[in-house]
Amino acid sequence: MRLSPIAILAALSQLVLADVKVTVPAAGASVPAGSITVTWTDSGVAPALSALTSYTIQLVIGGNDDSTQTPLITLANAASFSAGSSVTGTVPAGVAGSTTNGYFLKFTSVASEGGTVINYSSRFTMTGMTGTTPAAALTAVQALGGSNAGPPTVNSVNNGNAAGGAGAAAGGADFTVPYQLQTGLTKYAPMQPVPGTKITANNFTPLHPTSAYTIATTWMPKPSIATTLTASQTFSVSSMENTAAAQSNPTGDMAKFLNRWKD
């Protein structure tokens, strides 16, 4: 059977379409706190690695669902793919605990055609950690039963539509992309997390990198962002009646003092 030139081109194109696959740290690896090196290669899945311009890498702990994940530090912020396929950062020991297979990397890449693709590394263990793992993250990791698999890839390149049409409505993944890496008229901002019941952190670590800004000295151009949507709060509260009996009225001097106001 003889293939047409179009069929051959289509077959070859599948070989060069690839986003990011993190190779180091490896699945199930034990990585000491301190210096950490991240290395990646072609994943073999679209979009093409050559079509990605910059990336941000975050160290995350938690489950595969957004609501159980806690970003800990940013290892690379808006770095260029042209600089190579490896980056080295530092993980402070106090950001969380040594939870087995609780850690993974969130690799957010910006596409030249617009939009982003989020690849996740396999899970690994950070050793020598002295902090406390958030309760929700710890429970979610334990529920995975020791699995090394990270969350699934989130492809939002060109609104997730290869034909350039309208994409799907905003989901949880849209709010996890760092603000400065988003493109288009609408941007998505995460909801501020609900404070815990006690302070467990020993060191202050921002959840997200700071945003660049320019002080205006002349008239600025028209805004390129039409709308910013903030994620809805996900926590809930409940209340109940206080069934404790009422205290008796004051007596003695306190009763005399209160009686002065009975006009």
TrEMBL record:
It comes from the Eukaryota. GO terms for biological process: (1->6)-beta-D-glucan biosynthetic process; cell wall biogenesis; fungal-type cell wall organization. InterPro entries: Kre9/Knh1 (IPR045328), Kre9/Knh1-like_N (IPR018466), Kre9/Knh1_C (IPR008659). Residues 174-251 form the Yeast cell wall synthesis Kre9/Knh1 C-terminal domain. Residues 1-18 form the signal peptide. Keywords: Signal. This is Cell wall synthesis protein kre9. The keyword ATP-binding does not apply. Pfam families: Kre9_KNH (PF10342), Kre9_KNH1_C (PF05390). The lineage of its organism: Eukaryota, Fungi, Dikarya, Ascomycota, Pezizomycotina. Residues 25-125 form the Yeast cell wall synthesis Kre9/Knh1-like N-terminal domain. The keyword Signal applies. It comes from Recurvomyces mirabilis. GO terms for cellular component: extracellular region.
